């Protein structure tokens, strides 16, 4: 099958977070809103911590003015005890705030991960042609982690600093309006560069995430096909390709870091410069008796708190923006509707389904190549229980017929019916439930043999799984494995031979027990013994089912009730092996080439 190969970062570049800001917030809110109680607890704790923090300088100022000047030990004791009380409240509230906020972050991200995965797993093949799997996975991992940081910490840090900032300003105004006016002149000077550089950080963060996604997508692909890479001795090529991606990511990350470093340095310079100015003016006021030493002390601590809050806000601002980008990437997946959906009122398939299949004048082009008609006026009726072998040169459209029958795509025109019900009127799940598919490359999951077979039918009893393995001629080799059915198969079943994998896949299809069987015969040659076992397993699988088989073996075409010969999306001939062989057309030529075992058997 042809695969799209989008340019690096292409998939995610389409979605500019700037334009989706409002939606992004809505997305997060829809995930936060079920946890209103926790939000309330976190907010309450946050307000308590901010107020206690703000009370400390005031108390310190009072100690300076009252305690020191009178030299009264009792007053000192009361104030310090009071201070201890405030610190205690601060500690308890901080505990609650930290716990509640982190819990929220973890909870929301768990929910977002599930929502993204739940959507991804239902999307149509077109989506996966347009988005690389590495990019999709990075939304599940990297992007959700960024969101977690924000919900589970940055947002509360930001809120805490905003409260400190506002509360601090109010108390400062009450303490010394003159000194505050000095501070206020400094604020815009501090804030504008923050906003400007903050925007730049956001843009670079998005780019940086995309570049990392490029690198991991490449690694994902090549590690998955490491043997092919090594067979073609392309290690150096892949190394340098990967290095390019990584260096690219590094370059963008460093650019981002540079801007952030500027941002932080600028904030420090502005804020502490302003504090210095305030101290200067304040010290003159105390010296001339216009202000008490305690008030200046308190004011200064507030100024430091407010300055710290502004500085921290600028740090967090970048993070919030990064999360906005991440949220939009997650939202984008959650909002993607599968191309293939059940109609509002799906027509139920008969119960039980007989397995009559009808292709009527089907015209189809893949969405990525709308001008090329992969199937052109394709008509074929297959009756219940019939075995039809489909043969044709590579690219004739054989696999496409299977794709359409499982309704992974809809035809441009014409229709496909199962037991008289048009596929697009039925629920795709209902349609697919009637089919067992055995792929050319057996799909083996990193799980036990038992679980791999059970994938065909999750609720099967142990006995049913064993029976399916027996019917698929797999029981013997399984019993020879050290852990039998419980044997753990590595990723992609690398521990099994080709024939063994095929028999596991066949056992899975047998267990599924669907009325329609779609079989894409493996082209890879097996040794005679395995071939015999696989054939016996297939015979058992085809029994009593409507079978469409993309045939690569002579035994299969000989057994088929009819052979459909396809070329360039058309049916060019239909008949039995003998009939077609005599015509000396495309089939005879194909048979000569494809069925290597022909001369020996026929
Ligand atoms: N997802 C896709 N997007 C775009 N074009 C595709 C896609 N899958 C297949 N095609 C194209 O459609 C045509 C038919 O492909 P199909 O896989 O059905 O052929 P086939 O007869 O099964 O070939 P083979 O025996 O090599 O598997 C080919 O030209 C192929 O390049």
Automatic annotation (TrEMBL):
Key words of the record: ATP-binding, Membrane, Nucleotide-binding, Transmembrane, Transmembrane helix
Q: Which GO terms describe its cellular component?
A: plasma membrane
GO MF terms listed in the record are: ABC-type oligopeptide transporter activity; ATP binding; ATP hydrolysis activity
Its localization reads: Cell membrane
Q: Where are the transmembrane segments?
A: 39-56, 76-100, 157-174, 180-198, 261-283, 295-313
The record's annotation in CDD domains points to: ABC_6TM_bac_exporter_ABCB8_10_like, ABC_MTABC3_MDL1_MDL2
As given in the record, the signal peptide range reads none
**Principal location listed in the UniProt entry:** membrane
Domain of life according to the entry: Bacteria
Q: Does the keyword Ribosomal protein belong to this entry?
A: no
GO biological-process terms attached to the record: oligopeptide export from mitochondrion
What are the ABC transporter domain coordinates in residue numbering? Answer: 357-593
Query: How does the record classify its membrane topology?
Result: Multi-pass membrane protein
InterPro entries listed in its UniProt record: AAA+_ATPase, ABC1_TM_dom, ABC1_TM_sf, ABC_MsbA_ATP-bd, ABC_transporter-like_ATP-bd, ABC_transporter-like_CS, P-loop_NTPase, Type_1_exporter
Please list the residue ranges annotated as the ABC transmembrane type-1 domain: 40-322
PANTHER family given for it?
ATP-BINDING CASSETTE SUB-FAMILY B MEMBER 10, MITOCHONDRIAL (PTHR43394:SF1), ATP-DEPENDENT PERMEASE MDL1, MITOCHONDRIAL (PTHR43394)
Q: Which family does it belong to?
A: Belongs to the ABC transporter superfamily. ABCB family. Multidrug resistance exporter (TC 3.A.1.201) subfamily.
- The protein, known as: ATP-binding cassette domain-containing protein
